[in-house]
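User: Fold both of these, please.

Assistant: Here is the first one.
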Amino acid sequence: MALVVAISFEASAFDPKDLLNGLKGGSTTETTDDNSSDDKASGILGALGSFVNNVTANSKFTVDDLVGTWEYTSPAVSFKSENALKNIGGAGAATAVESKLEPYYTKLGFNKTTLTVAADHTFTLKMGVLTLKGTVEKESAESELYFNFSAFGKISLGKVAAYATKSASTLNLTFDATKMVQLLTKVSSVLNSTALNTLTSLLNSYDGIYMGFKMKLQKA
């Protein structure tokens, strides 16, 4: 709990006791089942870990901070402007969009996505049966990421802007959906075309949307 309290944010925004009470289901009944107690404690610690990662995640990092292999945990969306987010009803609506993406990600194999970034800033993005390679750049710690995609390491497939926030072990990576769909269409022969077309229609219904992945750092 000391770790949570030490995080710098307004005290009124979140009360850690609410999280613990919610995880316990609001019950004050004691249990004598050691396994149940262990599972509950594990769940609390896991939720606290996720909470800490979310609070400490930010966009100020360099490409060097991405070096390693990151694996998919769930879909992610972001928007180019606060106005775009307000137009669909705020952060809660963004979460709803992520839920809509999930079944199509599964059909396309995107739920098995991994991103590996090397020390020379080359990357390999494996999205199910699709493997994309290239280089990633970031002009400053505060700027957007840019992924330069290529086929066979030589043929340019385009440059796609990406917005990302990260903590020590989590990464929210979202790409300009319009550009990403254009790229995926170029290589659509290896993807489920029906699922891709439906996903494209869904993304086109939102202005300024970025689509991508919530990821975690693989342990060495």
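And the second sequence with its predicted structure:
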Amino acid sequence: MIRKKRPAPNIPVSSMADIAFLLLVFFMVTSVLDSDPDLPIALPDVPGGEQLNKKVANLYLAADKDKSVYYNSNKMPLPEAINQIRAKLTTTADLKVLVHADKDLTYNQVDNVFDMLKEAGALKISLVTQTTQGGGIKGEAAK
């Protein structure tokens, strides 16, 4: 019995680049970018600072110049916001709390919020600032 040689299967790869490009465009269009809350807060100007890591899940706590508190862009009293952060931290301990504090708030007011967050179990707390270095990118100064 003589075996016939079969030709190797030919896989067309000329359109693979097109398919990869279309998948890339699809995922770019359908992805949702994590953005800063759209609140009327004038962030303090700080030279330097670190770039925010948008890939990590973050909790946003903001306070405007009228001392109104926003948790993930929802206005609520400060104790209620701290309780919600405490509840989130019990399920996921590796969350970072980003504090957007208006530059007109006093140091003591911001420091009290940091202390309350520490008591709630927040291990990673950062104060978001507006940096002038690098064309006005947003950064953070960790406490």
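The two ends are 81 Å apart (CA to CA).
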